[in-house]
Amino acid sequence: MKKLLFLLLITTFSFAQNANRKYISHTWKKNILEIKTNDGSYQIKPLSDNIVETSFIPNGEIFNPISHTVSTSEIKKLHKSKCANLPNWIVLSCENINVRITKSPFKITYLFTDSEILSEKNGYVKKDGLETIDFNITPDERLYGGGARALETMNRRGNRLQLYNRASYGYETHAELMNFCIPVVISSNNYAIHFDNPSIGYLDLDSKKDNTLTYETISGRKTYQVIVGDLVTNYTELTGRQPLPPRWAFGNFSSRFGYHSQEEVEKTIRKFEENKIPVDAIILDLYWFGKGIKGTMGNLDWDKDNFPNPDKMIADLNKKNIKTILITEPFILTTSSKWQETVNKKVLATNADGTPATWDFYFGNTGIVDVFKPEGKQWFWDVYKRLINQGVGGLWGDLGEPEVFPTTAITAGGKADEVHNIYGHNWAKLIADGYKKDFPTTRPFILMRAGYSGSQRFGMIPWSGDVSRTWGGLQSQVGIAVQMGMQGMAYMHSDLGGFAGDYFDNELYLRWLQYGVFTPIFRPHAQEDVASEVAYKDIVTKEKAKKQVELRYQLLPYNYTLAFENNQTGKALMRPFYIKNESNPLQNDIKSDQYFWGNSFLVKPITSANVIETEVQFPNSSGNWFDFYSDKEYKANTTQKVAVMEDHIPVFVNGGSFIPKIKTIQNTSEYSLDTFDLHYYFDATMASSSGELYNDDGATPNTYEKGAYELLTFNSHIANNILKINFYNEVGKKYTSKAKNVNLVIHNIHAKRIFVNGQERVYKTFTNPLEISIPWENGTYPEIKIEY
């Protein structure tokens, strides 16, 4: 506390917050600091050791305690919080974050490990029809966040970003407004600030270049949370963690806009089978409920002319372990078969007079399901429940921004502009809640185009919208996915190959798929002018694309373990590239043209035609980097020219990494760790390293929490020209582990002698890579020793 008091005297931000705001009194009760001022009151509440929530309630308003973002079940116990009343200040201190309130002139300042990180500038002000809260920021801060945007740089400072979920059809390298407008800002000064209010508005990231961060909204809560420490982990502690998706979700999808008939669906799957191309799911766009694009949205039932026996079709697909995923939309056209039913049951958003609100848009004259109303939620879930009971394995929620949602529409949750940004969020919630109630042993798959802060906790799988099928469209994808991972939504992915337009380029298609191998979801999808499915490509392209699909399946053990790590810690699968091992990595510019896939892979997508060489920056990491395809070594903390091959993009593995792989399978139902390959990348500079491999049934929710899992751990130690590798396993109380055969593949080592569990293995020659067969019986802990 002495150190903190000293720092109070040397603060860098000495300006008054608001000359008209006067401190009157304060109370500290039940872990809430309430401060009364002449124009309102503040409620400041520590939520954890790393998160503080601040709300301003203007005079005449009543505090709204409802948050659509905060997941109270995830927030860890607050270890300690204290409030000290000093002559000039009130100091609220927690384990890692402190709040200092200067009494006169009034000012609120936030500190992390006793260093000032943020302060209110004018605080809450109402002007020009908007309610604003602004903050002082330092001249050199980099700012990230704001949801999904296609911008030229990762640093979003200088932009005034609208908070209004809206599709951007056919975008390429620039789209300021997209489907996920998340009101969170992540700063290079090691803090994040989340504005906990769903109403539409703006995030002004110093657009006037006066070192000011401003949140602007039309109405609603004046509540924000300041987060410090491990920002992604702590932010997802606040907003909730992604449930572990079903394992089949990491396989290949057959998808296009769209399959017109049952015959076309069955023919497509036969094409995959005939060509032995792995596939786990097929996605049906809007033709499943109507013959044309317009006039039928809202039918939400099978068009029996073109799908005469959907029960048999789905059953036959399920026998092949191929999931059927159906598109649904929240719009009920006045021409649809469900219109009168939804009117009678009062499940639609309304006008001020209580009549169903209707408007025209591309697909016809429509209303929209009120997902905030109990009757609306139940009606929509009954539709889904019927389809799931029919055998449907996954659900696709499209147009959930909502694509068109007039200001005059009213829902049970508020006016359209007050709930616009949380429509998709609440839509996903009703599906997730329905699964928990009626299908508690099934992990849902919920593909959606729009969401909000915390949507990941409902299992939402987001994608980046209707991207142009061009090189420009591909160029924007790394930035979108990495930024969304930083904001908690780790499964952001793209329509592989691009969606919008009829541009035909097999090189572009293959480069997009090569990138897609190292993204959360592998889902080629496009308008039907050019086939998106690998199975429908020409012979040469098909064989090249098939190898990418096969590699995707070979990496299932690694990718599924990444998903488990995300579920437990919130860490993204695609991670931002910056120079590692610095005290503040965010102070480095995050690159938008390369990224980390987990901790072990460095990926450099190729986003232009005819590239034969590219520049790769290798981070200042522990361990050097090795070409995933050739084993060529690249030194850490260097920038080098790398030759680009036609059949893959540049991918590198960090020295000391353990990469578990399996042989190619045709479907995730064949997945097994009874036999698997474990690749270890030897690097003499790495004295020790470790890796993990998570395993469960791939289908049941909360397997880790229920003890129905096994976690395999691998450790390496290097000293005196001896490499030791040890295997361990942790088995949950409700899991039966099987004996395993591990093919240990050690790259880049020149072995002289090999010992397995103390017994020397004699080889005529030592190959490179070196392969060692390790039988792993239950209850044993193999040790491998290699003299080199």
Side by side, the strands of the main sheet go 5-6-7-8-9-10-16-15-12
Mean pLDDT: 95
Q: Fraction of residues in helices?
A: 10-25%
Report the span from N to C terminus. 54 Å
List low-pLDDT spans: 1-14
| Strand coverage percent | 25-35%
Number of helices: 14
Number of strands: 46
The 3D shape can be described as globular
Category from helices, strands and their pairing: alpha+beta
Summarize the biggest pleated sheet: 9 strands, antiparallel
Keywords for this entry:
788 residues; alpha+beta; eight-stranded antiparallel β-sheet; 18% helix; 31% strand; globular
Write the layout of secondary structure elements.
Layout: H1 2-8, E1 23-29, E2 32-37, E3 40-48, E4 51-58, E5 81-85, E6 89-94, E7 97-102, E8 107-112, E9 115-127, E10 130-136, E11 143-145, E12 160-163, E13 184-187, E14 191-195, E15 201-205, E16 212-217, E17 223-228, H2 231-239, E18 253-255, H3 262-274, E19 281-284, H4 310-319, E20 323-328, E21 331-333, H5 339-344, E22 359-361, E23 364-368, H6 374-389, E24 394-397, E25 410-411, E26 414-415, H7 416-419, H8 423-438, E27 446-448, E28 460-462, H9 471-475, H10 477-486, H11 506-516, H12 539-554, H13 556-569, E29 574-577, E30 591-597, E31 601-603, E32 613-618, E33 625-627, E34 633-634, E35 638-643, E36 651-654, E37 658-661, E38 675-681, E39 688-695, H14 703-706, E40 710-719, E41 722-731, E42 740-747, E43 753-756, E44 759-761, E45 770-776, E46 783-787
Parallel strand pairs: 18-19, 19-20, 20-24, 24-27, 27-28, 38-42
Antiparallel strand pairs: 1-2, 2-3, 3-4, 4-17, 5-6, 6-7, 7-8, 8-9, 9-10, 10-16, 11-13, 12-15, 13-14, 14-17, 15-16, 21-23, 22-23, 25-26, 29-30, 30-31, 31-36, 32-35, 33-34, 33-36, 37-38, 39-40, 40-41, 41-46, 42-45, 43-44, 43-46
Helix pairs in contact: 6-8, 11-12
